[in-house]
Structures are given as structure tokens and as C-alpha cells.
Amino acid sequence: MPYTKGIGNAGQVLEKVQKELLDYKGTGISVLCTSHRSKEFTQINDHAEATLRKLLDVPPNYSILFLQGGGVGQFAGIPLNLLNGSSEMDYAVTGYWSNNSAKEAGKYGQVNSVLPKLDSYTGIPDRGTWKLSPQAAYLYYCGNETICGVEFQDVPAGLPGVPLVCDMSSHFLTRPVDVSKYGLIMAAAQKNVGPAGVTVVIVRDDLLGRANPLCPSILDYTQQKKNKSILNTPCCFSLYVTDLVLEWILENGGVEEMERRCIEKSESLYGAIDGSRGFYSNPVDPGCRSRTNVPFRVGGAGGDEALEKAFLEGAAQKHMIQLKGHRSVGGVRASLYNAVTKEEVECLRSYMIEFQEAHQ
Ligand code: PMP
């Protein structure tokens, strides 16, 4: 979705960034030039942590880390920190990203695939069918599969004593989370929280201190905690913007309000899809349709590629860009992250109806 000056939630933060860019809070220098050891950056780091703690009501026995390396970096960081002698890990693979994460973890130990074999990533098998191992170092799942549009609507129950680990990259801070149910939560910032370059890790403190000796220091949660996430030069600018976004979420009603908006926005699009008499289709089981990523095909269930091309071209003419579905699934995908407004989603919905009337 585009940022048009004056509209779009991203604009509110970006305008602040623009205003402060040349002179950060009267220091006479840009935040881009500030040392990561400066008083100013230390304040940004502390403030981001405190705001996130407030937003998710993170219990005191959990550490918050702002790391680099993205979600994919954590696909390795998680097993390297949590295996702790055990060689088994349980992975619930419900889509592209959890599949990639399981493959990465397989470099470090035995990955148990806990779900029955899926023909397509369009649903979450009933909890009764999951094969969980009491020996597993942790149970991993992806809260929201960005590409397939499959989202867990509740927290899956694991086995007692086996920490639950979740990749929340694409729905982080779009809904309340009971952090105490998790051993570890990770989220790459670039969807809902800020620019790429920051990866949030929230880890229960009793899981620290057990990293594999071969774990690179920058991925080692214990070392990063000791160094307040500044073991090496961090992405200062990205964390600065992340801090502004966190503050924006707090000022705009917190995660409860973000959730309300996400429900409203996604229901509007699913309504257009379901009411289209098959012209648009979303294959995901309605019980786990994502509120942040709505993939759909145009021109019937299998998609008509020529119509989809025309749909995307027409959307671009109306300044609705980057709606192309991921290459692995094709079609169209509307990502409704916190920066996207209800008005922008309504523009897309109106365009969908208009396009359908012209082509069905
Ligand atoms: N997990 C999920 C759910 C994602 O959507 C993505 C990226 N789109 C990743 C992990 C990988 O994140 P990164 O590109 O920051 O490595």
C-alpha cells in the first residue's frame, strides 16, 4: 500500500523522522551520525525496551533483545541457544517460513515434524493429531505464515516442560500476547514495528546460559543480554525508528486497538472475496485466516494469470502497489500491517468490486 502524504499510518512516524533527521533533539547531529555508545542512543535503546515491555506486559523474568540478522538469523539462533544437550526439536510446519526454519534447525539437531503431512499450506491440523516429543528442547511454530496467510488464533498447547517458541514476525504487535506462555518469541521488525535491521527476541531468563559453544556471539542471547543488545555496532537508525513506531502504537491504543483495526481491515477484504461468487478466492480454512496477510487468486480458485496481471496493473494505476503474491503461491496478497489504514483497505475493496464487475 502506498504512503500518500497526509494519510497512511507510516506517514506519522516518517514525518517525525524527517523532522529530526538533521538535528536529533537539539544535539546538532543526526541520529544517523550518533555513536551507539552515546547518551542519546542509550536512551533510545532503553526507551524502546521499556515501551515494548509495556505494550506486551512482558513479565520481569523475560529479557528483551534487539538483534540483527532478521528472522532467518533467528532460524539458526533459536536452536543454537536452546538445544542444550538435547538433540531433538519439535517443529509445527504450517507454511513457507516455518518450513525454512525447520530446515535451518536441521543443521544443528534432529527436527521432529509434529504435524501430519500437509498437501497444501491452507490450514492448521487439529491439535489432537500433533505428535509431540517430551524429549524435545522446544516446540516451534510460526504464529502467522506471511506467504500462505495462515494464522494461529490461539496459543497451541505443548507438553509440560517443553518451552514454546514462536516466530511472530508478521503479526507481532497486531494482537495481545500472553508472553508468559512462551519460552521465546522472535519477530523481525520490518512488518509491523519498524524498518528492516532489527529483530526482536523476547526470551525467558531460565533459558539463557545454555548456548551451544559454537553459537556466534552475535546470536548468543546471554552475551547480548549482558551487553544490552550492543555486543557490536547495532542498527542504530532502525532501532530509533522502531522506538518511534512502538511509541506510536502505545499512543494509538496499544495492541488491543491494533487488533481491532486488523480484524476490521481483514474482514473487509475477506468479505469482498467471499461475496464475489468465486471470482476471488482464498483457500485458507476460515478458522485460521490471517488478519495481516490476505492472499487471493483472481478469476477462480486456480487463478487466471492474465486477469491477475490486469488486476495488479489497474491497482498500480490507483497507487496500490506491491500487491503481487509471493512467487511460490502466485496471485495477489494484501498485507494489512499496522501502517496500513482502514481507508487504504477500503480503496482496495472498492477496486476489487469494480474490477469484478468489469470482468466477471
Ligand atoms: N518469518 C516470517 C514469518 C517472515 O514473514 C519472514 C520474512 N518475510 C521471515 C521470518 C524472515 O525474515 P527476514 O527476512 O528478516 O530474515
**Topology as a string of helices (H) and strands (E):** HHEHEHEEEEEEEHHHEEHEH
The description of the largest β-sheet is:
7 strands, mixed
> Which radius of gyration do the C-alpha atoms yield?
21 Å
What helical percentage do the residues reach? Answer: 25-40%
Mean pLDDT: 95
Question: Unreliable runs, pLDDT <50, ≥5 residues?
Answer: 1-7
Shape: globular
Short structural summary:
Belongs to the class-V pyridoxal-phosphate-dependent aminotransferase family. SerC subfamily. With 360 residues, the chain is α/β, with parallel strands linked by helices.
Could you describe the 3D structure shown?
- This protein is an alpha/beta fold.
- The protein has 2 domains: 225 residues, Aspartate Aminotransferase, domain 2, CATH 3.40.640.10; 106 residues, Aspartate Aminotransferase, domain 1 (Alpha-Beta Complex), CATH 3.90.1150.10.
- 35% of the residues lie in helices and 14% in strands.
- It has 9 helices and 12 strands.
- A 7-stranded mixed β-sheet has the order 1-9-8-7-4-2-3, with helices on both faces.
- A hairpin with a 4-residue loop joins strand 5 and strand 6.
- Helix 1 crosses helix 6 and helix 2 packs across helix 6.
- The longest helix is centred in the C-terminal third of the chain and has 21 residues.
- The radius of gyration is 21 Å and the shape is globular.
- 42% of the residues are buried.
- The N terminus is likely disordered.
- The structure holds 4'-deoxy-4'-aminopyridoxal-5'-phosphate.
- The site of 4'-deoxy-4'-aminopyridoxal-5'-phosphate (PMP) has 10 residues, from helix 3.
